[in-house]
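Q: I'm writing up a methods section and want to include an example of the input and output format. Could you take the sequence below and give the corresponding predicted structure tokens, formatted cleanly so I can copy it straight into the document?
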Amino acid sequence: MSRYGFQSQTRDTGSPVAGIIGASPAMEEVYQLTRRVAKSNASVLLLGETGTGKELIAGAIHKLSGRSSGPFVKVNCGALSESLLESELFGHVRGAFTSAVANRTGRFEAAHSGTIFLDEINSTSLILQVKLLRVLQEREFERVGDTSTITVDTRVIAASNRDLAQEVKDERFREDLYWRLNVVPIQIPPLRKRVEDIPDLVAFFLNHYSEANQRFVVHIQKEAIEAMQDYHWPGNVRELQNYVERAVVMADEDELTVELLPAVVRSGDSGSPGTVNLRGLDLDTLTQEVVQQGVRAAELEKAELHSFVVNRVEKELISQVLASCNNVQTKAAGKLGINRNTLHKKLKEYGLESSDGDLE
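A: Here is the clean output for your methods example:
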């Protein structure tokens, strides 16, 4: 037992940098890709839902690279308007626009000999994407309002919480820039796909926020961990972090109990078939999948579209319940109200079979 009141699942996984928590197979695959790509100068595209830790992985790639002694510059492309973002990235000269009272160095120039991390790259305009493509291809640009060309040696790591391939199909993202960025893609798994990491993540945040708030919450109730592992976590690790901080602040004793968790977690939102969380399955997502199959949704017969949607929902339902049961098929079949043979056939049909085989 650890000092947090549960059996720690932490083991030596060769985690690439301190602060990245997780020993699940899904995260070990991320670690392997991170270590492999870090030694190169190739552009990296990090893909994953909001709150999955893409910035941490970007930082790990930088720290493990030959550029680690250089700057690591972060830019949230979704937080600024197009004009402000252009100035932020490339800098400007005095008089370039009304508020430009002095020359300013841009983020690309500041990241010379190091790494620049472009978060939410999918939010950039098509016009700005042209300028980003030039930097990636030619390693040069001009400050806003200037004609002098600046050359930089900067590695680019980009991140998106949307499917950039689909954004290209929808003509919201330039295909040539996509291929420049997508040299090495790394998919960061959502928390619901790595529930075995939750105890260690909770322990880490519990210790951090206990120290930050001068509290002494050092134990975790078993029922609290089980409730958190049954929850869907639409906000991923960031949502978990917030709930642990809240629990530490609200705790009267030295234990994080299930009562300290929000009602949505206590209710087991994704712990049973009747309450499984399907918020990630919206009409746009389903339509995108139809389009990816080379079929226009509008051209589908109603019966075909109905069958497609039903199968997609069933696949997501089985995936979530299986994850909540830590891939124990017998337990998952019981929650789904079907026998194990039927579940096995469904897993094979939907391509959800574990590479580790049947887990009991």
